[in-house]
Design goal:
It is a single chain. The chain is α/β, with parallel strands linked by helices. The protein is built from 20 helices and 16 strands. Among the domains are: about 120 residues, Rossmann fold (3-Layer(aba) Sandwich), CATH 3.40.50.2300; about 160 residues, P-loop containing nucleotide triphosphate hydrolases (Rossmann fold), CATH 3.40.50. β1, α1 and β2 form a beta-alpha-beta unit. About 40% of the residues are buried.
C-alpha cells in the first residue's frame, strides 16, 4: 500500500527490462519510480522539484561502470540523507567496501530476489536494522561445508546439529525448519558434504525466487512446445540431481498443484516432464527447508499432509538467534575473523559493552543479520575494536533498553541458576561446559580435552556418562 507521495524512488539504469521489473516490484509496496538513464541525468534530477521528493535511489553499477563509487559519493554530497542501494553482478568484497565507504546504504548482487530488493528498500527507509543487509555478499565468504564450522554451544542448537549429523549418513528425506537467517542453507550443504552422496550432484531450488507459474517446470522439466513460450526442451532439477541431492528451499511457498506432483514423486520416484508422454525413474535425496512451521501449514490446509509426512522422515529445527543469545559472543568473534580476511578490511576485536549491546537485540534476521551488521560496522571502524559507537542504529532502536557497559553475564552460554533462584546441579553445569567447549573449538576433541585440562579418554568417558553425543 502507498504511504504517501514521498515514496518516490530514482532508478539509475539504462536497461529497459530491468527498469520495468524493479519498478513493478517497488510498486507492490507503494513506491513510484522515476528512471535516469545515465549519471548526468540522475545528478540533474536531484535539483528538480521531483528530485526533492525522492526517498531512495537504486543504482545499477553497470551504468557508470568503474565510476560507480564516484557517482555514489557525488549523490551523497548533494543529498546526504538519501539512501542509495547499488545493484551489481560483482561479488567482490572490495567493491562492497568501496561502495559503502562512498555512501552506499546497501549492496545487492544481481540477479536480486524480489523479496530481498523490497527488504533492502524497507530497511533503507526505516530505522530498523536490515534483516538481510548485504546477504548475497556475506554468503560468499567461502563458508566451510562441515558441521565444525557451525558456531554455537546452546543445547537446542547442538541438539539440532546432532540430529542433522546422524541424518547426513542416511539416504532419507530431511525437513529443516527455522526462521530466515538461522543457517539452514549452510546446514543442508554440510549434510550433503557428510553424506554418502557427497561426490554426486547437488542442486538447489529456492521456491520463493521462482515465479509460481514456472516452479513446476523448474522441478520437473518440460518438453518443447509443452506450453506457450516453451521453445525448447528443459531438464528439471529432479533429473539433474539424479543420483545426488536436491535441496528445496522455502518449500512452504510451493503452490498446491506442484505439492501434489511432488507428493506423487516422493511416493513413486518417477519424473514426468510437462508435456512428456512417459515418466522415468530417478534416485534423488530431497532435503527441504522451510521458514515457517510446516505442521501449522498442514493444519490450516496450506500444505499437503501426505507431502509433509513424506518429507519429514527426519526433522531438524534450527533455533532462532534470540533463543541462543549466549552464542552471540562466539559468533561475533568468528565473523569478525572472517571479515578481517576480506580485501580492504582488517582483523578487529570487539568490546564487552558492544557484545552486550548485540546480545540485547532480538535479531529478527538471525545469524545472517548479525553477520551483515558486523560487516557494516567493520567497514567504517577506525579503531582496533568495535565498540557501542559502531552500532548507532542498534543503540537507537534499543533506546533505554540498551544494556550498560557491564560485561555479558551470559556470554558463555552457561546458566548457573534454576528459575527458582537455586543453583543447578553440578552434573548439568559440567555438561553445559563441555558442550560449550565442543562448540567453541568446533568439535576438535583433542583441543577440547586440552583446554578443559583433562585427557581425551576422560573426556569421552564424561561424554558417555553425561549422555552427550559427540556431535552435540
Amino acid at each position: 500500500m502507498s504511504e504517501g507521495p514521498e515514496r518516490l524512488l530514482m532508478l539509475i539504469d539504462d536497461e529497459p527490462a530491468q527498469c520495468r521489473l524493479i519498478s513493478a516490484l517497488a510498486a507492490r509496496e507503494g513506491w513510484r519510480t522515476v528512471v535516469a538513464g545515465d549519471s548526468e541525468t540522475a545528478i540533474a534530477m536531484l535539483g528538480t522539484r521531483q528530485g526533492m521528493q525522492l526517498s531512495a535511489i537504486v543504482l545499477d553499477q553497470w551504468v557508470p561502470g568503474d565510476d560507480a563509487c564516484d557517482l555514489i559519493a557525488e549523490l551523497k554530497a548533494r543529498r546526504p540523507a538519501l539512501p542509495i542501494l547499488m545493484l551489481t553482478t560483482s561479488a567482490s568484497p572490495l567493491l562492497a567496501v568501496e561502495a559503502m565507504r562512498a555512501g552506499a546504504t546497501d549492496y545487492l548482487i544481481k540477479p536480486v530476489a524480489p523479496e530481498r530488493l523490497l527488504q533492502a528498500l524497507r530497511a533503507a527507509t526505516t530505522r530498523e536494522i536490515p534483516a538481510a543487509e548485504l546477504q548475497p555478499l556475506t554468503e560468499k565468504f567461502g563458508t566451510p561445508l562441515d558441521f565444525d564450522a557451525m558456531i554455537g554451544a546452546a543445547p537446542s542448537f547442538r541438539a539440532a546439529l546432532a540430529v542433522a549429523a546422524k541424518a547426513a549418513r542416511t539416504h532419507s528425506p530431511v525437513l529443516i525448519e527455522g526462521e530466515s537467517g538461522t543457517g539452514k542453507e549452510m546446514l543442508v550443504r554440510a549434510m550433503h558434504a557428510a553424506s554418502p552422496r557427497a561426490k554426486t550432484a547437488l542442486r538447489m531450488v529456492n521456491v520463493a525466487g521462482v515465479p509460481a507459474n514456472q516452479i513446476e517446470s523448474v522441478l520437473f522439466g518440460h518438453e518443447k512446445g509443452a506450453f506457450a513460450g516453451a521453445f525448447e526442451r528443459h531438464i528439471g532439477a529432479l533429473q539433474h540431481a539424479d543420483g545426488g541431492t536436491l535441496i528445496i528451499d522455502e518449500i512452504d511457498r510451493l503452490p498446491p498443484d506442484v505439492q501434489e506432483r511432488l507428493a506423487r514423486f516422493m511416493a513413486r520416484g518417477d519424473v514426468q516432464p510437462i508435456g512428456a508422454r512417459h515418466s522415468f525413474k530417478v534416485d534423488v535425496r530431497i532435503i527441504a527447508a522451510s521458514n515457517a512451521p510446516m505442521a501449522d501449514l498442514a493444519e490450516t490446509g496450506a500444505f499437503r499432509p501426505d507431502l509433509l509426512e513424506a518429507l519429514s522422515a527426519i526433522r531438524v529445527r534450527l533455533p532462532a538467534l534470540r533463543e541462543r543469545s549466549g552464542d552471540i559472543p562466539a559468533l561475533a568473534r568468528h565473523f569478525l575473523a572472517r571479515i578481517g580476511e576480506q580485501p580492504g578490511l582488517r582483523p578487529l576485536g570487539i568490546t564487552d559493552s558492544a557484545l552486550s549491546l548485540l546480545a540485547a537485540y532480538d535479531w529478527p534476521g538471525n545469524v545472517r543479520q548479525l553477520q551483515a551488521t558486523l560487516f557494516r560496522a567493520a567497514v567504517f571502524c577506525d579503531g582496533e575494536a568495535l565498540t557501542v559507537q559502531d552500532f548507532p542504529n542498534l543503540a537507537d532502536i534499543l533506546g533505554e533498553a540498551a544494556p550498560s557497559s557491564q560485561p555479558l553475564i551470559e556470554a558463555a552460554g552457561i546458566t548457573l541458576y534454576t528459575p527458582d533462584g537455586n543453583l543447578r546441579p553440578l552434573e548439568e553445569i559440567e555438561a553445559d561446559v563441555i558442550r560449550l567447549a565442543i562448540g567453541h573449538y568446533r568439535g576438535r576433541m583433542t583441543e577440547v580435552a586440552r583446554r578443559l585440562g583433562i585427557g581425551r579418554s576422560t573426556l569421552y568417558r564424561k561424554l558417555n556418562e553425561l549422555g552427550i553425543d559427540n556431535a552435540a
